[in-house]
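Task: fold both queries, return tokens.
Query 1:
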Amino acid sequence: MMKVRWARVKDAVGVAEVHLDAWRSAYAGLIDQAILDGLDLEHRTTMWTGFITRSLQGLPPKGYDEPAHRLLVAEDSGRIVGWAGFGPGRDEGQSHRGELAGLYAHPSVWSHGIGHALIARVDDELRDNGFADAYLWVLDGNQRAIRFYESHGWLADGGEKYGDAGGATGLHELRHVRAL
């Protein structure tokens, strides 16, 4: 039975596994394959352990001045199968808006309702925290994710940026927004 709950430190390895496997599947052909092949579970587990620890303390990720974000996980039969990170907008001038900073489901459970359960809970949490609207960034070319977000009422507003993540540089991201 799948449930969505707040992340605990012991979930870090499961969160990292979902993160790596989702990146390798979703971003094949969009990010250099050498970067995807070089993603390291131990490194990501350490990163997620720190993130979860700091989020439980209401602190931003280590080395960042941005607002603290929270992390939800989707768990099925004791296995982490998805996660979503969110909080106040991290982009300049956007702290008054909510931000869905990341949402991933393990590829083995794509189209099983995991993403839907996570995004519905994030919408509720952002609304409950006083946000009237929210935004997210999605990698240009990631049509599966774009279709998913648009089916949940998140629409492209023309915003775009280039950034770095996971060792990849110059990633072109498109902004999607929605009223909560």
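Query 1 returned. Query 2:
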Amino acid sequence: MRATMESVLENLVASNVSINKTSRDPAGQLRATIDRSIPDEIDGRLRILFEQLSHIRRSPEAVREHQAAVDWQVDLYEEIILTGVNAGLWQPSVPPRQLGETLVALASVANLYMLVGFAGDAASHRSRMADLASALLGTSI
């Protein structure tokens, strides 16, 4: 479980480092981060991670590791949102951290829905996330 979580997180980190190197546009970074948070297909690593989540509460260390992974994702969204706010691009109707937490939660639920086989495909989930982010930021991303 730990190795799987580390592998999934390493992939997310690498993907988002790539995003930030190729785009200085906060809207582009936010769209790309949303896109990468919901893959077209749920791979074996992500499947294992979701299937084992109910067991992590038995291990305080596993809970801390999972929370750290979630916090890293929230931090990433918050950083991108704050960059857009500081550039005068966005006026969020909720605090940036809260929006980041919401986007991470929505991506997790979308991935879980895809894992169990209902509620749309990845593209529709990504589109809904972008629409929500746009509404809460006060502009289209």
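Both queries returned. Flag for query 2: The CA atoms of residues 51 and 112 lie 9 Å apart.
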